[in-house]
UniProtKB/TrEMBL annotation:
Membrane topology according to the record: Multi-pass membrane protein
Gene name for this UniProt entry: dpy19l1l
Protein name according to UniProt: Dpy-19-like 1, like (H. sapiens)
Coiled coil: none
Lineage: Eukaryota, Metazoa, Chordata, Craniata, Vertebrata
Family per record: Belongs to the dpy-19 family.
Assigned keywords, A-Z: Glycosyltransferase, Membrane, Transferase, Transmembrane, Transmembrane helix
Amino acid sequence: MVAKSRKQTGKSPTTQTDRDKNQLVSPPGKSNARRPGREGKAFPGFHPNGLAGIRHKLGLTPSAVVKHGLTLLLGKLGALHLSQLFENDRHFSHLSNLEKEMAFRTEMGLYYSYYKTIIEAPSFLDGVHLVMNDRLTEYPLVINTLKRFNLYPEVVLASWYRIYTGVMGYFGIPTKMCWSINRGDGLTPVDSCEGMGDPAYFYVTCVFMLNGVMMSLFFIYGSYLSGSRLGGVVTTMCFFFNHGESTRVMWTPPLRESFAYPFLVASLFASYILGYLSPTKMQSILVTHMITLAVCFILMFGNSMLLTSFYASSLISIWAIIAMRDHFAQVFKAGIIIWVMQGLAWVGSTVLLKFMLSTILGASDDAHISGLIKSKFTSYRDFHTLMYTCAAEFDFMELETPLRYLKTLLLPINLLVVVLVAGRTFQDLGRFLRGGGKASGKSDEVLVYHSLQLVAFALLAVLIMRLKLFLTPHMCIMASLICSKQVFGWIGEKCKNQIVVFAVMAVMAVQGLANLQAQWAIIGEFSNLPQEELLDWIQDNTGPDSVFAGAMPTMASVKLSTGRPIVNHPHYEDAGLRSRTKLVYSMYSRMSGETVKRNLMKLGVDFFVLEDSWCTRRTRPGCSMPEIWDIEDPQNIGKIPLCTHISRNSRRHFTTVFSNDIYKVLEVPKDQR
């Protein structure tokens, strides 16, 4: 019998036979078997709406209706595309609440746990108080997670969810529909809910809607930069055709990268040095950045990492160089020499100021960033840099990425645009150096800025592959310039230019549509029975104050789904947390069992979740956990890793209280002193 609660308008239950679940498959967390029923469903909130009556009500001209209608349509398509990919990949609509939470792995699970805390609290303010006085994330510490993490998106979404469910409940309007899903294979049935009243549905739907708005903004940006709505179409087409290289929001939450932003100001400063931005305009931009940084500093309760970042140091350094521009002009000859000296002064003063501020404020949270950059250019390695560089997304850009850009013509178009803009720029510089002044207008400033920004993002992406998510969208924006009269006016009249653009779009579509079809063909279902067994065991057999340690991704799930205190988690940007994780991960070193046991007892750990895969997994030579530890612990090189001994027999040091094919829970003895 199918059980359902509030029924949404336009939905109807199916029979139990339709709901019966195919056999589940074990990790890595997804299978091709689908729970039948409700196929091809995206998330609620994405139902097509007509544009009839807009012109009559708002008095818009036909061209304005077309323009705004296209903008809204692209946003709608972007959100639908993301939601459908997410549903196809995980069959999210058929997952139980626990399975949905398990699908939010690593940092996503950590961030979502604070959203869950706020919506489950007696009131919104009680929830905010709990996340500002968190006792679960880094036991035994009490931390302000709003200061430590960038959690304002979760705070805002939680407030919206509480308002939405409160208002709908007041008027008696159903917000979700629940079903009993028979999973088969001797597994107990689970309740599965869909609709905006379901917390997980609400969360991901808002994320997809936000990214749909981003698609509309890409269209507007491309239209503005190229001076043609056709340029906006080119930008959005490039984004869709290179979707897998542009975003990961359909698989994971939006990334919260911040250390790349100094390179944004790099591009601005280069535009100023070359004379494309006046000192007054540059200072106005810097003031905007400084105010934004100050607001972030206040909202994050004085997070010192913001003040000691390369970004903050860059702002101060550039401001000082602009203020001293007359002194530079007196000492150095106008032209290339003064440009080079200003650039060197910026680099030197930024680095010096950053380390001075870090020393004065005693901040070391972002020390791993310096180590990561250092490891890219030297043979430097330590435990923390290897934790990053052994992951493919933090390695150098793979060769396949530019090849994929090449197949969709994104790379050739961008190279051509940059060459043409560079040619115009060198002509301007040549006239300037010959004393003829700089013959460039406001539009040239924009083109030079975006070209320099593209170069900055390209350098970042080459060094750290994950940062191609900054590069690819900017390449899509730059591709809009094939519609620009300013850059491609030499082709001829408008009709000829449009013919060339449509021909290019047709060639792009060959590989682009193949890429989209490959994404649409990803059909699976999230399933992680071993972790479900682990979380159920923890919930049923440990006290609410039991403290856990283990692999960072697993700890995020333990905190989210069981509410147990943990000592380490995936947010690796804090110096103290890195030290804690290093102690926890000594389980995967070649140290003695007594040493590791003392490390865990020092942290107050009651249970350690051991995963054999972390002991044996090796992404490339030198990147298994025991090999990473060999850098820090050379005296034990050659010994069998402790995790190997423990997986065979833990009785000498720990007591095994739970075990399945993937996880083993070890009880840590209490300190008898």
